Amino acid sequence: MLKIFNTITRLKETFIPIKKNIVNMYVCGVTVYNYCHIGHGRTFVIFDMIFRYFRHLGYKTKYVRNITDIDDKIINVVKKNNETIEKFTNRMIKNMQNDFSLLNILSPDFEPKVSECINEIIKIINKLLKNNHAYIQNNGDVMFSVDSYKNYGKLSNQFLKKLKVGKRIKVNKEKKNPLDFVLWKKTLPSEKFSWKSPWGQGRPGWHIECTTISSIKFGNKLDIHGGGIDLLFPHHENENSQFNCLKKRSKINYWIHSGMVILNNKKMSKSLNNFILLKDLLSTYDGESLRYFLMSTHYRRPLSYCENNIKKSALSLKSLYNSLRNTKIEKKNYYFQNEYSIAFEEAMQDDFNTPKALSVLHAISKKINMLKNQNKFKEVKKFSNLLRKLGKVLGFFSYDPEDFLRKKSKMKSKEEINSLIKERNIARKLKMWKLSDNIREKLFKFGIILEDHKLFTTWRKK
Ligand SMILES: [Zn+2]
């Protein structure tokens, strides 16, 4: 039986879905105002692992993740770089998708941009106004009233009294309670990124977007809501309140939070300017090795960023691939029960214990190597299939072992790559297209993808 640590009860609970064999999961997505950093990598690799594990258990999954493309930070960046908001956010979304696909993160079933959901957001705010959970402030902003929800503070385990005297909360005399938060922010009619609403021109607050998207997709009951632990307060506290105030008996059953990535003993975050970008790491390490590193610590614990540990993860993954060399993929997706598969399931059923599950993969790999030495090829086939099957549950082995190992050993040095790019640029200037194409293909064979920009060329690993 699958046990999950539920943030709202602070207990490891047996997972019981609302509908038999179906799992509904909502995870807060990225605010696309910059490139994604390794903290995003961890959150979305973790929820991808959870998503894959449910599928492995035979559940029909419905996974929804939003893209926050309306935000003051986005507006501020765009003001500085003279790009339109749509062009800028689309570029950032492409970069995000690129990073995520290199990390073998599967696309969710539904991934709307907030800017596509404005009408629905307005409807939801209207509902909260009608239910007396919201009010309009003198300045025209629509606010959620935290006093209207008796369990406010329950999810993040913060008591209202304690919060009220908190120094971090600015006192705004127009608010009924200093913790009330904005659902619809009034803007000037001339402001570019704003929409018409019954309360005048404006744009939605951050928390209401997730509640809107999760309630359109799932109604008033949701199995799992996930996100990074840094979102617990105020974002998830506010989301939980809004969701529960929409209808009687609304409920989010399990709240799952992944731990933060720590850099130099501090939280890694874009807003603190203390972060390492995924795209930079992915130009040095392959995505599966990085994925391994992100899963090597239990998902709820903080993960210290350490380049040495990424290197160790890359070697560990390489050793798994090594034992799969010269073994064929069985077409029939068979799965047999033995001490290894049982240990793997036990680890995963215990609140997704990936470090333990990874150690089971290594035990199978050791077994395969031993069987190979004993020339027991039938057994090799059986266990290599098991290793493949279980590794795939965690999102590994998307490469053929030979390709993966060759790619690592034959990868050109940065100097070699740059000198080939220079050579190709000269060929392009001289309109020697065939030579330029040959160089591109040559690099592609070494796992290097070239990206031509207006005035220069960059490269990344395949
Ligand atoms: Zn959210």
CATH hierarchy, class of the domain at 307-402: Mainly Alpha
Q: From the coordinates shown, what is the CATH architecture of the domain at 307-402? A: Up-down Bundle
CATH topology of the domain at 307-402: Four Helix Bundle (Hemerythrin (Met), subunit A)
Rg on CA atoms, Å: 25 Å
Helix content: 40-55%
The dominant shape is globular
Put simply, the count of helices is 16
- Any low-confidence stretches, pLDDT <50, length ≥5? none
The computed structural class is alpha/beta
Strand order of the largest sheet: 4-3-9-10
Can you walk me through this structure?
The chain has 462 residues and is an alpha/beta fold. 45% of the residues lie in helices and 15% in strands. Among the domains are: 96 residues, Anticodon-binding domain of a subclass of class I aminoacyl-tRNA synthetases (Four Helix Bundle (Hemerythrin (Met), subunit A)); 51 residues. It starts with a strand and ends with a strand. The protein binds zinc ion. Zinc ion binds next to α7. The site of zinc ion has 4 residues, from α7.
